[in-house]
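Predict the holo structure. Ligand: NDP.
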Amino acid sequence: MKQRIGFIGTGNMATAIVQGLVKDYVGMENYISVNNRPTTQDKMSKAESLHKKFNVNLEASNLDIVKKSKIIFLTVKPNIYPKVLEEIREFITSEHVIVSVAAGVSIALIEGFFDKPVKVIRTMPNTPVFVGEGMTAVTPNNYVTDDELRTVVEIFSSMGEVEIIGEGIMDAIPAISGSSPAYVYTFIEALADGGVSLGIPRDKAYKFAAQAVYGAAKMVLESNEHPGVLKDQVCSPAGSTIEALYVLEKNGFRGTIIEAMKACTHRAKELGLSEHKTHIE
Ligand SMILES: NC(=O)C1=CN([C@@H]2O[C@H](COP(=O)(O)OP(=O)(O)OC[C@H]3O[C@@H](n4cnc5c(N)ncnc54)[C@H](OP(=O)(O)O)[C@@H]3O)[C@@H](O)[C@H]2O)C=CC1
Ligand SMILES: O=C(O)[C@@H]1CCC=N1
């Protein structure tokens, strides 16, 4: 991986991707540039922290990122996209590849800031890229070459699984994999709380809960069995598991998850509207 890669915005997602890149490719830090808007607090900026931790190149502005990089990750919140795109639009050339990670932001919205063809790859990763177990969806626009797409797929493949998909289902990807780690953490916390209420020490409870979720996910991915078949294997007739499932279903377990995913997708679409303002700037 000998591509110059820049990050505009160095929060959670950029940190996860930078860490993955530096871990997977020897000497990669020399090819990575980072910038974050100046911090208002009297502490080291997030970009400076990344520079200190991984020895990546610290730049003074978003324009410097554009000048120093071929692949530009826009790792800012969706409502900041218009501001950043306005700032960099004149300096983007036909050589650059813009990689979006933003929920809800369409390729057309990004292209709309330019009066010339620009290369855009829309992606939706998730934070498990931190531990090499990410799930990333990728959609290129028509100007991206096969080599450029391969490079970006390779970047995310080094941190987990990647699927190239049509943009039509991109707005739904936060619901299923971009945001869903947060549902799963909440599920693990709930399992652990339940364990504590049943007398299991808290530190043990988190381990039992997390390993059960991890193992179950691995079974789905590796056994080639339908999740329903795996579920049936756990449920002994007149046993304890079916009693637990009965309570979950009576309380709308699946329906609640599906409704949550619809709310997530609705919000992702809202976030992607350039005129939409959130209270977070
Ligand atoms: N978090 C997640 O799990 C996932 C997030 N995403 C997407 O990733 C993107 C970033 O999310 P996340 O990393 O969580 O958000 P963060 O708030 O952690 O990071 C965004 C960073 O952008 C910085 N920033 C804001 N404005 C500017 C600017 N004008 N120039 C340079 N930097 C700026 C912020 O600075 P500061 O806060 O210091 O002011 C912050 O450090 C979003 O679009 C989100 O939809 C996608 C998949 C998963
Ligand atoms: O909460 C959010 O908007 C982002 C998108 C996917 C995960 N986090």
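The two ends are 34 Å apart (CA to CA). Residues 8-13, 35-37, 39, 46, 62, 75-78, 80, 83-84, 101-103, 124-127, 178 surround NDP (ligand 1) (CB under 6 Å).
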